[in-house]
Amino acid sequence: MRAEYRFEYAKGKPNRFASRMEKGAIAVILDPDIASVFRSSDAVNTFPRSFLAAMPAPRHMRAKAG
Prior knowledge:
Layout: H1 32-35, H2 41-54
């Protein structure tokens, strides 16, 4: 590893946003044009939930006996 990439652990700081994350949450980076449309994380989550609710329920396919 190159010297400029060596991490100085003594200078590391804890993640100041970690307390905002709920258990099991995943951070996703939105492109700036998309992020400008949403005012909060609730607004971001509402859109895909409404999209999923409008989709037909998935059909479960059975494995064929061989």
